[in-house]
Amino acid sequence: MTNDQRLTTEILVVGGGTGGTAAALQAARKGAQVIVVSEFPWLGGMLTSAGVAAPDGNEILPLQTGIWGAYVRELQQRQKEGLDQNWVSLFGYNPRLGAEIFADWVADLPNLQWLQHQTPQRMIKQENRVVGVEFEDYEIFAQIIIDGTELGDLLALGGISHRWGWELQNEYNEPSAPTEFNELTERYPVQSPTWVFLLQDYGENNTAPPISAPKLDVLPDFEGAWQGYGLEKFLNYGRLPGGLFMINWPQCGNDYGRDLNRLIGTESEREAYHQEAFDYSLSFAYYLQKQGGDRYGIAQDVFPNPQNSGFALHPYYRESRRLQGLQTITELDLLPQTGGCVASLPMNEKGEISSIAIGNYANDHHYPGVKFPLQPKSMRWGGRWTGTPFSIPYECLVPETIDGFLVCEKNISVSHIANGSTRLQPTVLNIGQAAGMAAALCVELGCQPRDLAPRQVQEGLLQDTIAPAAVIPLLNLPPNHPQWLHWQQYYLDNPANYPLDGSCPLDSDFSEEREIGTFHTGILRKLANGGYSLQLYYSAAAKKSWALITTSPTVKRKLESCRDGQMISVWGCCNHAGGWLVVYKVC
Question: Does pTM surpass 0.85?
């Protein structure tokens, strides 16, 4: 290689996925010299190039912190139609917009270099330390290397201890794990990926371009895809602005789980899986047009792929190789404490609170054609179902023996069962931000990741000047509260006082309520299942009942204090797909 092809930097992030993007941004914002290398022309991974533009989890305002919170606020500023468009998520957007946001953030950092269309070919090691990575056109050396690939490819290239597949119940005492290997664990060693695509509604009186079926001997059977929902509700699952629909559908849909071990096999085996998964989703698109009518077609000019611009650039991977780290997250680390609604805070062998990222997704596994029961970890909050919060320990980013290396994606040290909660986009953004902060601190302090105290990472995240990130889940503490930093640090110092309900004793009259949307007046009804409805009267003859939900702690508290049958006025936005009204202020 020429000298131009041999590069040296302080931090190298391999993979431009969700975690890798956040890691590169945070490390550069901390002042380190960073190179991020991506396979695709978009950064953001699951949130953009994989097409999952209706992300799940961390939707409650107190959990919208760090780069995840900044991303949500930037989307709200740029997408004038609003984000609450579908019924699977409170956030729905054109993935091209998400890619533009990440590209703009990278462009703002002169110490962050982005190289595209490169994949790792070889890891360069010196004894027990990773020092460089060879790509098709570059050889890059760095003090700290972060694996942000979609499938944990550096773990395999570097011979770094990792897992692939299931753990039995006797290994971690996980209640949802199988007691022995069986047909399910053999058939689906990991969760099924999905090749996401966007469908477009061309209008009732218009005809969409016809979708051609892939050249297969037998087309897949998708009968029953929207059984129990109906076509309209099925489409509204992933409704996005501009008449777009994200198609990422598990019920007789486009999850594809055949011979998943090919994903960690040879290059030709992975390519064969990719072609089959793409053809499977194309078959689903063909089926949708045949069944739904020719007003629906594949979206145009979304992804930077001239041949298939309505299809994501790569599959949405729900699971990858998983590091064997200093600490492994198991299902027991995610379940709420007895009598509470939050998981216990993680502690390391030194007795330190080691939380560096937070999440709250319920737990969800995808095995096509199989219903797999999981230990419940959900709760009613603000009128809607959401997952109970948990924390990610720093030690699950650090290998057992290898130095100069961190992970930041679905490749963290986590069990197969627990991966169903930790894999979601907001949590992975948080993990990536923590990995970037840790890497920058290692460069600054001249130490290895294993020698870095979690408190140093925590303080760096909490006091970041651009996107401060919470490390303790506190359900009544919005990120703009004047006591936010105090209570985050208080529970790091006093973990025994961490409340079972996740609510800290705030002593101010601060309110995060805002007059967003439109003004509504109606009769509040408190439902037996912990939900709310509001009976609105538009005229003497017209009335409409909406489910009421909120992400605001102040609004939640006010709704709880109201009486059943009370007349109330609210500011909020109606979501016709979900049938709910998101309340931002109670008057």
Answer: yes
Angle, helices 66-78 vs 95-107, to 10°: value is 120
Tell me where in the chain the CATH 3.50.50.60 domain(s) lie. 3-165+322-362+381-461
Q: Which amino acid is at 373?
A: P
DSSP class of residue 194?
A: B
- Domain 518-586 matching CATH 2.40.40.10: the answer reads no
Separation CA 98–CA 240 (nearest Å): 13
Q: And the tokens for 9?
A: 């930097």
Residue the block writes with tokens 């077609």: 297
Picking from 300, 271, 101, 100, the residue whose alpha carbon sits closest to that of residue 197 is: 300
Question: Strand, helix or coil at 426?
Answer: helix
Rounded to whole angstroms, the Cα distance separating 448 from 131 reads: 12
Which of 159, 93, 148 lies closest to 125 in space, CA to CA? 159
* Tens-digit pLDDT profile for residues 199-236: 999 998 899 999 999 988 889 999 999 999 999 999 99
Residues of the chain with CATH 2.40.50.140: 518-586
CA distance 440 to 269: 37
- Dist. CA 53–CA 295, nearest whole Å: 22
- Helix then strand then coil, in percent of the chain rounded to 5, is 30, 20, 50
DSSP codes of every residue in 441-464: HHHHHT--GGGS-HHHHHHHHHT-
How is domain 3-165+322-362+381-461 classified at the CATH fold level? FAD/NAD(P)-binding domain (3.50.50)
Cα dihedral value 18, 22, 28, 30, nearest 10: -160
The amino acid that residue 269 corresponds to is E
Distance of CA 439 to the CA centre of its chain: 21
pLDDT in tens, 504-537: 999 778 999 999 999 999 999 999 888 999 998 7
